[in-house]
Amino acid sequence: MELWILASFAAALFQSVRFMLQKHLFQGALSASGATFARFVYSAPLAVLCLGVYGGLTGHLPSFPNLTFWSYGFIGGAAQILGTVCTVTLLGRRNFAVGLTFIKTEVLLTVVIGFIVLGETLSTMGAVAILLGVAGLLVLSGPVERGHGPIWRRLLSPSAGLGLLAGGLFGVAGVCARAASLEVASDLAGVRALITLSAITTMQMTGMAIWMQIRDPQEIKRVFCAWRTALWIGLTSMAGTFCWFTAFTLQKAAYVKAVGQVEIVFGILATVLIFRETIRPREWLGIGLVSLSVLALVLWG
């Protein structure tokens, strides 16, 4: 099995655990912004430390990244912050597995964003897979309690809006992360991923710290008070993002995100076994359609 596929599977697993921890904090101690900030404040220092250790052990790091790297990193980092806020808010509205499936529309949106930014294309079967995924979204976008009402009203529901927005933002983040990593002068995918991870997470931590200090300084204190859980969010975030970035350096963002849809399976297990939430038949159908679209992208995209 190719390295980028293994990295994508690992990233999906780490990300599932992180989302579960963030859902727990959001429903208890922190706001959506606080749960998002916890991800970066506990992961950025670790990423920089790992980069320093690597440089110390090897005595070599690639040359300082150029302005294009920082531009893509800034845009992708900002998009990831906003996408994470939308994600945490969405997971507080709907059950864990369905919330993740809404967010996983990112694989469909990443196709479009990847074409616009990097000129990356898919095959005809890839387009068919996208339509299948849209069908799954239509099924999932019904109201929480009932599936009645016109399609346009379902698509404009708060849950669907948050899911689409999060998916689009994560699509931008993924494509920009790939574009940034390609600017790093190294033949080693892990090194390029580590440098990109360190730079982006540091920018994210700094930006969110400034914003929260202005808007809600007490929330920063609550993040540090919740360190027992927040620290694990940081660790899983760093591990997952490193795996994502490693995969991005080796393969198109759309294909990486497609393989990462295995996270839906992890989400179903978490919904039933951990959160003790019920998945309705209609929601199973929607999850199945989106999962089929992902499988089609992997096999024939």
UniProtKB/TrEMBL annotation:
<dbReference type="InterPro" id="IPR037185">
    <property type="entry name" value="EmrE-like"/>
</dbReference>
<dbReference type="Pfam" id="PF00892">
    <property type="entry name" value="EamA"/>
</dbReference>
<keyword id="KW-0472">Membrane</keyword>
<feature type="transmembrane region" description="Helical">
    <location>
        <begin position="226"/>
        <end position="248"/>
    </location>
</feature>
<feature type="domain" description="EamA">
    <location>
        <begin position="3"/>
        <end position="141"/>
    </location>
</feature>
<dbReference type="InterPro" id="IPR000620">
    <property type="entry name" value="EamA_dom"/>
</dbReference>
<feature type="transmembrane region" description="Helical">
    <location>
        <begin position="35"/>
        <end position="57"/>
    </location>
</feature>
<dbReference type="GO" id="GO:0016020">
    <property type="term" value="C:membrane"/>
</dbReference>
<feature type="domain" description="EamA">
    <location>
        <begin position="162"/>
        <end position="298"/>
    </location>
</feature>
<feature type="transmembrane region" description="Helical">
    <location>
        <begin position="69"/>
        <end position="91"/>
    </location>
</feature>
<feature type="transmembrane region" description="Helical">
    <location>
        <begin position="161"/>
        <end position="181"/>
    </location>
</feature>
<feature type="transmembrane region" description="Helical">
    <location>
        <begin position="254"/>
        <end position="275"/>
    </location>
</feature>
<protein>
    <submittedName>
        <fullName>DMT family transporter</fullName>
    </submittedName>
</protein>
<feature type="transmembrane region" description="Helical">
    <location>
        <begin position="193"/>
        <end position="214"/>
    </location>
</feature>
<feature type="transmembrane region" description="Helical">
    <location>
        <begin position="111"/>
        <end position="140"/>
    </location>
</feature>
<feature type="transmembrane region" description="Helical">
    <location>
        <begin position="284"/>
        <end position="300"/>
    </location>
</feature>
<keyword id="KW-1133">Transmembrane helix</keyword>
<keyword id="KW-0812">Transmembrane</keyword>
